Amino acid sequence: MSVKAFELVPAVERELLMGDKARINIECIECCGKHLYVGTNDCFIHHFLLEEHTTPKGKLVFSAQKVLHKYLGLKKPVNELKAASALERLMVLCDNTVIVVDMVNLEAVSSGGAKIKGVVAFCVNENPVNGDPFCVEMGVICAKRRTVQIYMVYEDRVQMVKEVSTPEQPCAVCLDGYFLCLALSSQYMILNYSTGASQDLFPYDSEEKKPIVKRIGREEFLLAAPGGLGMFATAAGVSQRAPVNWSESVIGAAVSFPYVVALDEGFVTVHSMLDQQLKQTLSFRDGHILQDFEGKVMLASTKAVYVLVPRPLERQIQDLLAGHRVEEALTLAEGAQRNIPKDKFQIMHRRILQQAGFIQFGQLQFLEAKEHFRKGQLDVRELISLYPLLLPSSSSFTRCHPPLHEFADLNHLAQGDQEKVQRCKLFLISYLREARSTEGANGCREDVDTALLKLYAEANHESLLDLLASDNACLLADSAPWLEKHHKYFALGLLYHYNGQDDAALQLWVRVVDGDLQDSTRSDLYEYVVDFLSFCSSLDLVWKYAEWALQKEQKVGVQIFTRRAVSDEQEAQMSPDAVIKRLHKYHQATVLYLEHLVLGRRVQKEAFHTHLAVLYLEKVLSLLSQSPAPAQQVTEAREKLQNLLKESSLYRVQLLLDKLQDTDLLLECATLHGKLEEHDKALHILVHRLKDFPAAEDYCAWASASRDQGYRQRLFHLLLGVYLGPDAPGNEHTVAAVDLLNRHAVMFDPAHVLRLLPEGWSLQLLRPFLCGALRGATHARHTSQVALGLARSENLLLKHDRLKYRGGPVLVSEKKGCQLCHNTFTEPDCVCLPGGVPVHTHCAAQRVRDSPRKRQSTNPSNHT
């Protein structure tokens, strides 16, 4: 695919060069800065001064001024010219002789050493190995000798420093450092003239085709290969670039990165070194010279000289982008990086990536577009601005100039195709989400978040609530109307909350719950409002909306207070007493809140326990007053009351007893008497009035819980006494008494029980009790014996350990002497020194007196 990379501009017209002399032809050219030298077939060298000018339309033109021309006097064509600007010398090949002339006056250097004869071709080393800046290295092909000679050219002489033999006669040469790239008669080769190492490249036929050997960079060459290929080869003999496919009849080549320019009989072709594609073709007749001089590509026919002026790289890239040739534009930009200052390249490259991204965005190639936007560090607002109304009205953003794309907006891009519009919006959602999580939204977070909110609301996207519940920068002024438009009232409430406007949020949610506004986002919005109020820091708002919540449903509304964790600062306004005072109109809510305080938080306050017990009692009495009374509800209500009466010890017992007078709640009365330690009354109620013997036994177990054994025994004896009392009916209570004894034998003193029992009871009737009592007594006796034995064993072990730590026996006899005075022992009393050595007691005492700093023996006990 074509791109206009170069423009052909005349430099030296025919008239200026040769006037009316028709037979004069150009043989070679050399350019050094503004100085152009032309060698002709009549043995003349022409010196021109080239000046560059830019036309009002921005085009580059050249004006040539002839400075001098010089006849060399050899009557042969001037075959080659090479300039050495540091020396102000010009090397001229004419009649197989290299002559050094002055660049200014074109006079030959007078020294006889400034001439080389028998030369076929020569080249200058553009990567010299000699460090002398006033010396030029030159490679020379010698005629008919199969050798290449290396010369040093000085201001007034030339000096040969090396001669290298070749397997065949060379016909073209190029020099880079120590490496010679040679075109022999049948092949190309690389030759290191310092080490003599050589590397054959590939064959060709010099008789059929003119060889081309061109240095294009450090230790890299361009060669004309068979099959119309331009091959790249390094000094190591390998190719690091793919070949370019030019014509079979190429007669010259030049490099202007990133392009390879080739000249054939009728055309100039331009190929890219980056992708090897043909980019431009220029018609050019009678061309026979193509060379590049310090980045300037020059072209000559037999009569005139031209310059191939490269178009600015940015214009080339923009042309490619205008043709939607994204990959070619990026390849060209990245390939030209080495020729552009780093800062300038980065700016240019980012813009090209952004443009490429918009091109692919317009083609709905979203993955590629996203990658180019990311690499190009696109200001995300450039993309948002394509979507009408997404940017906040307060945004100060203006689009880049010149513009990065050709679209007015999304509607212009989609041309009415709603599917395209939706796909583009989904892409923007994805892109904005990624931009929020990276640094892509830095400096424009408000614009990004507001745009994302609008897209979410419009698409009914599930992430809308996640956005508003997290840290965000959505602008309230722009977002609120948009959310209202799409009936996202719950989301709007979250936005109000995030902006510190909780009252506005609650007002909105209350209207949705009441049905004044329609929003199906949350079916449990009422429960959400209650939960919100339970964590709301503003007590004014809590009291304001608690009334509404309790009117809706007391069971749920009371959670505003039961879930709440009250801080020290709020304790006075949100104390339990204050809450109960507010809840007095709502019976169910009051009960639930008191249950939370008494049963949940275990608040130890008499008023709360008494209040809850009274409310439980009123509930039971209310149910019992109904006709008929709902049995299931009565049972559940009485269970609650009974559990509270048993578990709590803080309520006012006498108050409740007074309320229970003249009621049938006998079990509750018995419990209250138990709280007053009036166990006889409680048991009388259970046994004589309720005749609930299991309840009486349970009462004894409950009332004696956490008490000592004696207390429990007295309570069970009291129950037995009730069963056996004189006012008890015989048969029924006898059975209850026997069951009590048999089931709880361990709770009774057998001797005391036997004194209470009527004499007429048979032993068979009391057998379980007596067996249990006997087993209990026997078990207690055995247990005490085991405990005594264990204690004795432990005492014995302690005595053993004591003896073990006191040490073994010490033997003292009349025949054994004291280690201090060496006298024998006459008495059994002694002191044992460390190591078990016995000494006299007085000797040990004397030793202590004589050595007060020494410690006494660690074991001063006497042993006999």
From TrEMBL:
Give start and end residues of every CHCR repeat.
564-728
Q: Which GO terms describe its biological process?
A: autophagy; endosomal vesicle fusion; intracellular protein transport
For this protein, the record's Pfam families field holds: CNH (PF00780), Vps39_1 (PF10366), zf-Vps39_C (PF10367)
**Recorded coiled-coil stretches:** none
Source domain of life is Eukaryota
Q: Mind telling me which GO cellular component terms the entry cites?
A: cytoplasm; membrane
InterPro entries in the record:
Clathrin_H-chain/VPS_repeat, CNH_dom, Vam6/VPS39/TRAP1, VPS39/TGF_beta_rcpt-assoc_1, VPS39/TGFA1_Znf
Record-linked PANTHER family: CNH DOMAIN CONTAINING (PTHR12894), TRANSFORMING GROWTH FACTOR-BETA RECEPTOR-ASSOCIATED PROTEIN 1 HOMOLOG (PTHR12894:SF29)
- Listed name of the protein: CNH domain-containing protein
Q: Which organism is it from?
A: Aldrovandia affinis
